[in-house]
Amino acid sequence: MSKKIVIPHSKPSLDENEVISVSNVIRSGRIVQGKVVEKLERKMAKYIGARGAVATSTGTSALHLALLAIGIKKGDYIAIPNFVCSALLNVVKYVGALPILADADRKTYNIDIYDLKKRINKSTKAIIVPHQFGLPADIDEVMSLGIPVIEDCAQAIGAIYKGKKVGSFGRLSCFSFYATKVMATGEGGMVVSDSENLLKKIRDLREYDNRKNYLIRYNYKMTDIQAAMGISQLKKLNSLLLKRVNIAKRYFSELQGFCNLPSISYKDRRHIFFRFLIQVRGSVSKALEFLSERGVTCMRPVYKPLHKYLHIHGFPNSDAIWNRTISIPIYPSLTDKEICIILNVLKQYLKRKI
């Protein structure tokens, strides 16, 4: 009996280059934060077009340090999108701040600028703006509000907005290198900025040992093992992004007429397709079950919108997206055979009468 093929929703794009890079670090005997981390920081800053960068243990720790660096304290209000993973809510809570949730845009899934404008107030001290699923948000419109902006580029490294890479707009920008992300180092993150003062604060807060004074500091360091993987991933990032876009084009071509699809091209921004989202009729849970039974692992774009955790209402766009949208596998290591299976199984489901 042949073994059933199971296509995962996400998979890192690793090869012998990562094996060699990590092996070299292990052989060196220096596996903690060191010169390899510093090299990755310089390369990331150069890639984004920023003055400097600080590597961290995770994308969440990067966001946490970013909020601390700009002086967010207990009782401050921080605006964040509602249709995101809970990491953003967590970092707001870490610093004792209060979240202002803004609804999602139904077409782009990014923060709805009109809803954001209605919800912010004079006490809003910062706005965290993710570029959801690889599509740049309307970052210039958010920045025009005059409130400090932290870009969350966890899902969008390499995406371009009006000729500039995302991560080059906000006072600080944060990246994630978790195993499912575009660049994968297992765990890991990065803060990028043009402000040497803010980067200095983040470096100070990132580690706690051998200090003349006492402050609450953290153990948020990246290891040279992770950084070696990161350098290898960054070298091939452009080719990885091209593969994602080509798969997205194929999905778009073959699924037209079967379901609502995202736009492939935009006038003023470049989507990198960290995720490929489609809208389905009927129950999302039943759709996910149908696809899983046939070997195609799909997921909800976010496990739950934040308002569902907080048991509050008033986010109709987030509810509509969550009740209709699934994320299908899209990553550079997908084979042609796997893509054909994904498309065939999806068409089987989408042809059904609900």
UniProtKB/TrEMBL annotation:
Record-linked InterPro entries: DegT/StrS_aminotransferase, PyrdxlP-dep_Trfase, PyrdxlP-dep_Trfase_major, PyrdxlP-dep_Trfase_small
Signal peptide (from-to): none
GO biological process: polysaccharide biosynthetic process
Keywords assigned by UniProt, alphabetized: Aminotransferase, Pyridoxal phosphate, Transferase
Active site: K181 (proton acceptor)
GO molecular function, one term: pyridoxal phosphate binding
Residues modified to N6-(pyridoxal phosphate)lysine: K181
Recorded family membership: Belongs to the DegT/DnrJ/EryC1 family.
Protein name: Aminotransferase arnB
Organism of provenance: Candidatus Scalindua rubra
